[in-house]
């Protein structure tokens, strides 16, 4: 953390009137603003992000997110990898949502090739996408209170994560980067008895979720740090392209799983419930995330019931050894755990993409900070930043 002094007059560098803080009105006395660098590291070490804050006392009057410290040029690497190889690159920008990241790429390629994925693979993908969503949300449900000084919740959250992680690891062989999606379906079918173990994991997490809810949402210190803090207006959500649970916590009723169904979501409309809250503050964002875990568990149970009735069958489509995508372009988007992920694929008929542009949820969500932080105090900045639920690799790509 470093500081530099910036001398301003009157309203200061960002237009905030320091006289208001002193109780005066219209004073032209010289004032000194401070520029404070938070980072280049997230306060809770989620990754390498830098915020350049302009302060008047302890009040923030300007914020400039400085990103790129984890940029690895994924989009250019896509252009020199074939369509099977790019999956392993795509699942890493948001390391908490690896399965969802793979999914967007293969959906775009399948759309370009006109491939019809077997029904069993469609339902399995839906199931695994929701299991991955629960894993993602549990991480933030545990780590966010940690940023506000509460240590205990992270142990509860990780207990539930390990329960889900066990069945995901058994199925895919990967703990975080599953590499289980393939163009045309999935890597392989389920191990014997896996559906029963997945159902038991879902029931265990559902039964213990009230522990997390009680220990956090009922805590008066947590409420004091989050209620009414960092209110994000629906207008800002639209202007900055904010999506996912953050947008829904500001009353924006939007979810691609319902609005533009993909996978098997079109057959789950009676189970899928879009959670919204009107407040738009830090508390609402956390509450929406917690409620979405319950919705995902409902979807998981519905997928398990459906899979138990499906006959044995293929989970992928046989493809040629060298996979070439027809010339053309397409755009695929998915409701990933952190928001909308978009994949713009342009093909020249080769075995590698000519262009694969990635629209990541975290980048747009973090872009709203310059409009959200001015006028708030430094301690509230920590609460607001943590409630934006981002992964730095997802910002930088």
From TrEMBL:
Keywords tagged on the record: Cell membrane, Membrane, NAD, Quinone, Translocase, Transmembrane, Transmembrane helix, Transport
Record flagged with keyword Disulfide bond: no
State the InterPro entries in the record.
Answer: NADH_Q_OxRdtase_suD, NADH_UbQ_OxRdtase_49kDa_CS, NDH1_su_D/H, NiFe-Hase_large
**SUPFAM superfamilies xref list:** HydB/Nqo4-like
Keyword hit for Membrane: yes
Q: Broadest EC class?
A: translocase
Describe its membrane topology: Peripheral membrane protein
Top-level division of the source organism's lineage: Bacteria
Documented EC number(s) = 7.1.1.-
Q: Can you say where in the cell this protein is located?
A: Cell membrane
Q: Which family does the entry's similarity section mention?
A: Belongs to the complex I 49 kDa subunit family.
Query: According to its UniProt entry, what is the function of this protein?
Result: NDH-1 shuttles electrons from NADH, via FMN and iron-sulfur (Fe-S) centers, to quinones in the respiratory chain. The immediate electron acceptor for the enzyme in this species is believed to be a menaquinone. Couples the redox reaction to proton translocation (for every two electrons transferred, four hydrogen ions are translocated across the cytoplasmic membrane), and thus conserves the redox energy in a proton gradient.
Q: What binding partners and quaternary form does the record give? A: NDH-1 is composed of 14 different subunits. Subunits NuoB, C, D, E, F, and G constitute the peripheral sector of the complex.
Question: What protein does this entry describe?
Answer: NADH-quinone oxidoreductase subunit D
Q: Which species is this record about?
A: Kribbella hippodromi
